[in-house]
Design goal:
The complex is a heterodimer.
Chain A (H helix, E strand, L loop, with lengths): L1 E7 L4 H10 L6 E7 L6 E5 L2 E5 L2 E10 L4 H12 L7 E7 L17
Antiparallel strand pairs in A: 1-5, 1-6, 2-5, 3-4
Helix pairs in contact in A: 1-2
Chain B lengths: L9 H28 L5 H28 L24 E2 L2 E2 H19 L9 H24 L4 H6 L7 H19 L15 H20 L7 H28 L5 H18 L5 H18 L2 H5 L7 H19 L2 H4 L12 H31 L6 H6 L1 H6 L22 H8 L1
Antiparallel strand pairs in B: 1-2
The chains are: A alpha+beta, B mainly alpha.
């Protein structure tokens, strides 16, 4: 199993959700996040005083999937989140040892 | 009771009752205006500094302030007497012009309240609340009351001897609050992180709401200063609207040219700057004058708010840049744009009156500004020595809302539907008590 984490632009969340539903992924976790990569931050001006804001609002999406589904899921997220402009985000995958469904106690791929 | 026989005009009285309520509303409006501009951690403290000023100034005004400001002159135009201390000798039948004296005194009280509250913007985020509670009443008696007497009191030297004009309080309200704000900002020193940390306004919609309420109340401030439901009130009302608009546009124009964006905070600030500047002049200048006064204030004040970064004083919310500078612009421009249709005789430079009136306005500005600055600086230093005026460093870091008031404005750090983590139906204070 793999944990796929994606950091994307907040307004792409709905597209990513739709794309994942279309390939049969039924659950995800989304968290508000902030950070910066090559995009760096932005400048805000209050009464003429400029403030450099380094951290940009992002959404962090997490999905756990079976090994075989990892690549299609990553591709779907990248397709849905891409705008072609700087700051589109990153996607990465990590191995997952165990998953337990809290309600039933099922373990492993059955719990997904 | 026969009002007519005693010279009370019911129309004038009705208007002044409404105007008094409008001016009182300006202080909660100011609280929102200021509250939105500070950081989340001290918004309640900012609101409280304005709100508590209503209570503090009212008490000292009724006790002695009104009498010293508007009682009979005692020292060559410098201060009134104590004949009406505790409002003694004044009842429902007492008359000031065509309105009840008690109403006139209350109308003037609302001016004193907002002037004291205005100063708090200069020391946002870092003043001890206890020190503020001492400062406000003493400041009202030592600074506001004498200046109000100089300008409006019977025999006051600014209007009666010098002949300077100030319709609705450029000198007692705007210039004293601005100069006093500068003095206190110097006494307290800059906020921790000044010029290093981004101290962004935490709620700009609140700033706009506050500015809107200020603008609404300002019609009572300026048009009410005619002390009657008459043509002069109407002219002052229109001038007030006009100058607020050109102030707003002037500030936005500068922002667009200088920073590339017209901002919400700029619009609110520009409107207030225009309203500040038209306060002294609304009853003296033509409509053209009002448009220019507002525009000048919007443009100049938008640059003046940057002075604090260059000169290294931390006037947190720009009391100097908006109220002192705006007040000086409006008070001086009376000497340029005064028309005899409004003043009943005096004309400004533009209308053939020469430089004389401008000179008088300048003397008044310098005298009032210097007096307010020096007395406030001395009072601030004294309070700092005895009580400490600056909040503890830890309190300032944590935020005064929590450390002083044991409250926070917003429910942060929550998961799902705004419920605090681990919250039950039992209030936490009650739980703590049970556990203890």
């Amino acid at each position: 199993m793999k944990l796929i984490t994606a950091i994307v632009k907040p307004y792409r969340l709905d597209e990513v959700k739709t794309a994942l539903q279309e390939i049969g992924v039924h659950g995800l976790t989304a968290t508000e996040a902030s950070g910066y990569g090559r995009q760096r931050g932005h400048t805000e001006v209050y009464r003429g005083a400029e403030y450099q804001v380094d951290l940009v609002p992002k959404v962090r999406i997490e999905v756990v999937v079976d090994d075989a589904d990892a690549d299609p899921v990553i591709d779907a997220i990248v397709r849905a989140a891409r705008t072609g402009k700087i700051g589109d985000g990153k996607v990465w995958a990590l191995p997952v040892e165990t998953v337990v469904r809290v309600r039933t106690g099922e373990r492993g791929p059955d719990a997904l | 009771m026969s009002f007519a026989a005693q010279g009370i005009d019911t129309g004038d009285t009705a208007w002044l009752l409404a105007a008094t309520a409008l001016v009182l509303l300006m202080t909660p409006g100011l609280a929102l205006f200021y509250g939105g501009m500070v950081r989340t951690k001290s918004v309640l403290n900012m609101l409280m500094m304005s709100f508590v000023s209503i209570a503090l100034v009212t008490v000292v005004w009724l006790a002695a302030g009104y009498s010293l400001a508007f009682g009979d002159d005692t020292f060559g135009g410098l201060i009134g007497d104590l004949k009406h201390a505790g409002m003694s000798g004044l009842g429902p039948d007492s008359v000031h012009g065509t309105v009840p004296t008690l109403l006139f005194a209350t109308f003037q009280l609302t001016f004193a309240i907002i002037t004291a509250a205005l100063i708090s913007g200069a020391i946002a985020d870092r003043a001890k609340f206890g020190a503020w509670l001492v400062f406000v009443p003493v400041w009202a008696l030592l600074v506001y009351v004498p200046v109000a007497h100089w300008v409006w009191g019977p025999g006051g030297w600014v209007l009666d001897t010098l002949g300077a004009l100030d319709f609705a309080g450029g000198l007692p309200v705007e210039i004293t609050s601005g100069a006093s704000g500068l003095a206190l900002a110097l006494v307290l020193g800059p906020r921790l992180g000044f010029k290093k940390d981004a101290m962004r306004p935490h709620n700009l919609p609140m700033v706009i709401l506050g500015a809107g309420l200020l603008w609404f109340g300002w019609f009572g401030f300026n048009a009410g200063s005619a002390l009657g439901a008459n043509g002069l009130a109407a002219a002052a009302f229109l001038n007030t609207l006009a100058a607020g608009c050109t102030g707003l546009l002037g500030w936005l124009f500068v922002e667009q040219k200088r920073d590339g964006h017209p901002t919400t905070l700029g619009a609110a600030s520009g409107a207030v700057a225009g309203l500040v500047a038209i306060t002294p002049s609304c009853g003296s200048v033509s409509l053209l004058g009002a448009l220019v006064v507002g525009l000048a204030a919007g443009v100049v004040c938008s640059y003046a708010v940057g002075w604090k970064f260059k000169l290294n004083y931390d006037d947190s919310l720009d009391v100097v840049g908006v109220h002192l500078v705006g007040g000086v612009i409006g008070t001086l421009l009376i000497g340029v744009f005064a028309v005899k249709e409004m003043t009943g005789g005096t004309e400004g430079l533009l209308y053939g009156g020469g430089l004389a009136q401008l000179g008088k306005q300048l003397v008044a500005v310098v005298a009032v500004g210097a007096y307010a600055f020096l007395v406030t600086y001395g009072l601030g230093k004294l309070i700092d020595k005895v009580l400490g005026f600056r909040a503890d460093e830890e309190h300032e870091h944590t935020g005064l809302d929590l450390t002083v008031h044991a409250e926070t404005a917003y429910d942060h750090g929550v998961l799902g539907h705004g419920a605090p983590v681990g919250a039950s139906s039992v209030p936490s204070a009650q739980k703590v008590k049970t556990q203890a």
